[in-house]
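Memo to structure team: turn this sequence into structure tokens by end of day. - J.P.
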Amino acid sequence: DTHRLQFVGTLFAFNGLFILFGAVLIRDCFTIALNTLVLWGIVRWLIRQTWWNLLIAVFLMGISTYAMTYLRIQSVLLFGLYGFLAFLFWFFSKRLDAIRLIAILFAVGLAAIALPYLFTYFHITQETQTRGMEQYAEQSLNASVDDSLGMRLIVNQPLPIRLVMGSGVLMIYPIPLWAYFNTNFKDYLWIKGYNGIYQLFVIPLGIVGFSIVFRQLKKDRRQIALLFLAVYLLINMVAVVATSLEQRHYAQFMPAFIILAALPNTQNVMVKQRLRTIVVWWWLVVILVDITWVVLKW
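Reply from structure team:
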């Protein structure tokens, strides 16, 4: 509707990472555009499941995959996962029928033929994850001491712990909130610091959006598309944490988050009360994390 569409535009315009890319960085502008095209094609097909929309989605994914090989090769690995997830959501969006049965049998046969390529795909994925974490650890060592909080609590932890802790860091970043507001820092860090404030205000809306998707999930096309957005966002968060832990890499998936954040109808009394409760708890968590950081630093 018009109200939510305007809200999406507002969230987009004030997004600190988008401002960062428009002012300082250029490559990330193209990665966001390509990821958004792929996401748009898949969601459009999930909502209106026609052969024409399927061809559009496949075409956009093919073009974006080719272009992404020159921009950020890690995203190419994720595009294959998006396609597989889109197939699963399409398959379960309705009851099993003859067309879907044929499609699943065709997919199984295709997977059997492509099994050697799938092993190569997973091998490259593992290498990418390992290489990304090695590069991140090296950058962290160059920028901090060995016993820094980031090294101890995130980088040096086993992968499951790193995924949990790193996801929290991406949501509450930077830690502390005032870390980048220093006159000695360049505009790059100042804008990232502003984005941290932006996230603090928008993430409660995203949490309510997630709850709306999972609470009101029905077997209809619109809800399936929204559920795909939620899963898409979570998978990409895990991918960023597993490979780089760099916040600007997460920005290329922000369009999905903005859409979910615009779902809550703040004019509804019950939704507004739920949002207020989440905001209070969210700010308590942020304050507790910052205070903990200060205490540990002392």
